[in-house]
Amino acid sequence: MTKTTNDTKQPQLSVVVPLLDEEDNLPSLYEQITRSLAGRYEYEVIFIDDGSTDRSFEILKGFQASDPRVRVIRFRRNFGQTAALSAGFAHSKGEVVVALDADLQNDPADIPMLVSKLDEGYDVVSGWRKKRHDHALKRLLPSKMANWLISRSTGVRLHDYGCTLKAYRREVLAEMRLYGEMHRFIPALASWSGAKITECVVNHRPRTAGKAKYGLARTLKVVLDLMTVKFLGSFSTKPIYIFGGLGLFTALLAILFGCMVIYQKLTRNTDMSGNPLLLLSAVLVITTIQFILMGLIAELLVRTYHESQNRPTYVIREVLESSDKHGDA
Question: What is the mean pLDDT of residues 189-202?
Answer without folding.
Answer: 91
